Amino acid sequence: MATRLVEVQNLKKWFPIKGGVFATTVASVRAVDEVSFFIDQGETLSLVGESGSGKTTTGRTMLKLLQPTSGKIIYKGKDITNLTPNQMRPLRRNMQIMFQDPYGSLNPRMPVGDIIQEPLDVHSIGTRKERRQAVATMMETVGLRPEYEKRYPHEFSGGQRQRIGVARALVINPELLVLDEPISALDVSIQSQIINLLQELQQRLNLTYLFIAHDLAVVRHMSDRVAVMYLGKIVETADNDELFDHPLHPYTQALLSAVPVPDPEVKRERIILQGDVPSPVNPPSGCHFRTRCPYAMPICKEQEPLVIEVAPGHTVACHLLTKK
Amino acid sequence: MAEKVIEAKKKGQKKSSEDYTYVGMVFHRLTRHKLAMVGAFMLIFILLFVFVGPLVWRANPNEQIEGLEGMFNVPSRAHPMGTDDYGRDVLARMFFGGRISLFIGFISAITSTLIGALVGLVAGYYGGWADDLLMRFTDAMLSIPTFPLLIALASVLGKGVWQIILVIVIFGWMVDARLVRGLVLSLKEQEYVEAAHAIGASANRIMWRHLFPNTLAVLIVSTTIGIGGAIIYEASISFLGFGVQAPFASWGNMLQNAQQFIWNSPRLIIYPGLAIFMTVLGFNFFGDGLRDAIDPKLKL
Amino acid sequence: MDNREVLVDIKNLRTFFYTEDGVVPAVDGIDLTIHRGEVVGLVGESGCGKSVTALSILRLIPNPPGKIIGGEIFFHGQDLLKKNEEEMRMIRGDKISMIFQEPMTSLNPVYTIGDQISEAITLHQKIDGAESKKRTIEMIHLVGIPEPERRFSQYPHEMSGGMRQRVMIAMALSSNPELLISDEATTALDVTIQAQILDLMRGLQKKLGMAILIITHNLAVVAEMAETISIAYAGKIVESASAKETFKSPRHPYTYGLLQSIPKFTEKKTNEPLPAIEGMVPSPYHMPKGCRFNPRCPFATEKCREEEPEILELTPGHLVRCFYPIES
C-alpha cells in the first residue's frame, strides 16, 4: 500500500490585477483554478500543459513558494496550507525544487560549492567539514568533478549547471522534488544524460517527483502518472500507459495528436485545435476548454464539468463522459 | 588547503585561482587590472603626500606672513607652492587640507552609501508597507529644501568634522536608497533568489548573501562618485558656518577661497583643484577596477 | 536522383567569428544543396553552425566579429558571396525569405502588423497604397488568421505567439519567394500551436511551390517536414540523406546516437536508462583534433583522433563523414 506523500485539494492561486485610482483589485489572473491531485511516495507524477496552463504555478504553490489563494496542501498527513514562513522552514528540508533556467537559477557571484552547500548552511546540518564533504560527494554523484567547487556558474555549460541545480536540491536529502521543466533549455544530447541522472537518483535515494514539462515524449519516458492541465484546471489524470493509449478528454487527445514523431513514415492524424488559448484573466464560463473543443455542447457553456473517475486511477473532467 | 599552497610554492608553480581565498582572489585580480592600478598609484601618491609630506616639509599651514610681500608669492625655496592671500604656506595647507578633505570625503561617501543601501535593501525586499514607509520618507528627505534645513542643523549641531560628515550623509543617502531599491526589485525576481526561498533561507540571508553582493558593483561606483561630491560639498556649505572654518584649510575651502584671486594667482586654484581632480579620478579608476574584480564573469 | 533544378548550392562554406577569446570556426566546410520546391532539414545542436549557415546565405553575418572566409553559395548559378549589398537587398525578403524563432523581437512593437506586412510588399513589389493593403489582407488570410481586415490594424503585442509567427510567415511569403528559411521558427511555440504552424507551412509549400530550409534541433519536426536531411555537428555536416534513410538507417555515430537517445513518444515506459551520448558539444575555442565527434564517439579509434574524415557518398544520395560508418 503506497503512502501518500502529498495531497493537494481544490488549490487555487489567483493573481490580483490592480487598477484604478485606489489600486483596487479589478480582475485576477486565474493561474491555478481549483486543482486536486496526490502523489504517492516514490512515484513520478507529471504535470503537462502548454503556456497558460498553470502547471508551473501549481508546482510552486504546492511548495508554498507562493501563498495559495484557497484550497489545501497536505504533506504527509499534515495540513501545511497556512503555515507561516518560519513554520515552513524546517519542512523545506523535505521538499525541494529544480528549475528550468540553468542560467538564472544559480547566483552568478557564488562559487558552485557554496551554492550546493547553502541548504546545509541554512538548516545548520553537520560541521563545516562534514558539509564540505557532503558537497564533494554530491558533486560526484551528479557527475561533476569535486575539484570544481570554487568555480563560478558561468564557467559551466548548461547541462553542468542543471547538474549543480540537482545537487543543490538533493544535498539535504529531501523526499519530494519538484522538477520545473528541468531539461527544456538543454541540447538534445544532454537532455538524455540529465533524464538518466534524474531517474538513477530517484531510484537510489527513493525520491518522489512532481515533473512539470511540456515535452510529452520525455513525460512518457519518466512518469508513473500524468495529469494534463488546461487554463488552470486539471482536465485528465491517469496512469502513464492509460493516458497515452486511451486519452479521454478532447484536449488530451488533441495534445497527444499534435506531438511530432521522429519517424517520417508515420502519418499523424492531427486534431488541429482552432483559435488560441483564452486569457486566464477571463476564462470561458463553464468548461474552460469549450471555445476550442470540437465536441462542445450547450451544457459546456453553463456548467463546469466535475472530475469523475472513469476507470481506476483515471479521472476526467468532461461533460461527454458525465453523460455516460 | 594551506599544504597545497606551500606545495605549489615549493615547486615554483603558479597557483591556480582555486587556491585563493575570496579576498586573495579579489586582490589578485585587482593587481591585473590596469585602470585599477593607475588609480591605486594615484591614491597612494596622494596619501603619501598628505601624510608623509608634513614630515618632510615642516611649515605651519596657518602661520601668516605679515605685509604685502608675503601675499601671493610665487613658488620658491622658502615656499615650494608659494603663499596665499594671507601669506600662508600653500604646500603646508595642501597637506593638512588634504587630510581633512580625504577623511570627510571618504567617510561620508561610504556612510551615506551604506545607509542608503540598507534602506533600499529592506524596502525593495520586503515591499508592502515597509517599502511605502521607507520610500515616502526618502522622498520627503529629498524634497526638503536643503538651505533651511542646513541652517537649522547649523544651530543645533555646531562645528566640527563629525558634524560635517553627518550633514553630508543626511543629504546624501537618499540617492543610493532609490538606486538599490530599484536594483533589488529586479534582482528579487531572479530564479536564484526563488531557489534560496525554496531552500528555506531566511530573509536576512537572502538580503545579505544573495541580493547585497549583486548590488555591490553599483554601490562601489556610487561611492567613488560620492567622494568627489562630498569634498566639494564640504566647501560649498562653509559659508553657513559648516565646513572647515578659517584659518584651517581643506581643499574645498582653499578652492572656493581662491576663486576671487583667479587673476592674481591662478595657482591657488590649480593646486587644490588638481588635487581634488586626482583624488576623484583615482577613486573612480580604483572603484571601476574593484567592481570588475568582484565580478566573476569578467576575465582578468 | 533529384530532377528538379538546383536552387541553392552551398560549397565548402566557412564562416568564422574572431572574438577576444579566440577564433570560433562556426561553419567550417559545409556543403548543402536545395532543389526547387524541396524541403530540406538542417539539424543540429547548439554550436553546430546551422543558424550561421542560414545567415551566411543571406549575408547577414555581423562583421565584426564574423566573416565568411571561404566557399561559394550559388543561387541560380550565381555566387551570392560575390554580390554587393545592393544586390543582396534585392534578394532578401524577395527571392529568399527568412523567419526566426522569436516573433516578438522580429516584429516592431510600435507598428501594426498590417503596416509591417505592407512594408515588405511595397519594398519588393513596387506597389503601394490600396493595392498593397489588398495584397496584405490576402496574405493575412492566406496564413490562416481569421478576420484579416480587423487584424490588419492590430499590434504585435495584441496577438499570441502562434499568431505572430503567422504574421512573420505572411511577411516572408508576401513576395512569393523561391526559398523560405525557417530558423527554429516553431521552437518557442506550444506543441499544439507548433502543429498548426507546421501544417500551415506544409500547405503553403504545396500551394506556392517554394523550397524550404528548415533549421531546427528537433528531430521529430524535421521528420515530419523534410524530404532531405543534413545533420550538422561542430561546424561540419556529418550526414546527409533522404528523411527516410536518415531515420531508418543512420550511418554516422552521432546521428545514430541522437536517434537512440531521444525518448520515444510511442513506446511504453520501461525503466531502462536512455542510451545517451556521453560528453558535451566541444568548445568552439578548443576543437578536438581529428574527427570533431571523436571524444564522444563509442567507436572512435586512433585514426579518428588524428585525422579528419572526408565526406563520402556511401549509397546514392547518402553522404557520411566518418571513417567507420555504421552498417545499415
* Average pLDDT over all residues of chain B: 85
The global form of chain B is: flat
Let me know the number of strands of chain B.
0
Shape of chain A: globular
Note down, in words, how this protein is organized.
- The complex is a heterotrimer of chains A (about 325), B (about 300) and C (about 325).
- By secondary structure, chain A is of the alpha/beta class.
- Chain A contains eleven helices and twelve strands.
- In chain A, the strands form two sheets. Chain A has an eight-stranded mixed β-sheet, with helices on both faces. Chain A has a four-stranded antiparallel β-sheet with strand order 2-1-4-5.
- In chain A, strand 7, helix 6 and strand 8 (about 210-215) form a beta-alpha-beta unit.
- The two termini of chain A are about 30 Å apart.
- The model of chain A has no long low-confidence stretch (mean pLDDT about 90).
- Chain B is mostly helical and about 300 residues long.
- In chain B, about 70% of the residues lie in helices and about 0% in strands.
- Chain B is built from eleven helices and no strands.
- Chain B has helices at about 1-10, 20-30, 35-55, 90-125, 130-145, 145-155, 160-185, 190-200, 205-235, 250-260, 265-295.
- Chain B is flat, with a radius of gyration of 23 Å.
- The two termini of chain B are about 25 Å apart.
- Mean pLDDT of chain B is about 85; it is low at about 1-15.
- Chain C is an alpha/beta fold and about 325 residues long.
- Chain C has twelve helices and twelve strands.
- In chain C, the strands form two sheets. In chain C, strands 6-7-8-3-9-10-12-11 form an eight-stranded mixed β-sheet, sandwiched between helices. Chain C has a four-stranded antiparallel β-sheet with strand order 2-1-4-5, covered by helices on one side.
- In chain C, helix 8 (about 190-210) links the parallel strand 7 (about 180-185) and strand 8 (about 210-215).
- In chain C, helix 4 (about 115-125) packs across helix 5 (about 130-140) and helix 4 (about 115-125) packs parallel to helix 7 (about 160-175).
- The longest helix of chain C is centred in the middle third of the chain and has 18 residues, at about 190-210.
- The two termini of chain C are about 20 Å apart.
- The model of chain C has no long low-confidence stretch (mean pLDDT about 90).
- Chains in contact: A-B, A-C.
- At the A-C interface, helix 6, helix 7, helix 8 and helix 9 of A face helix 7, helix 8, helix 9, helix 10 and helix 11 of C.
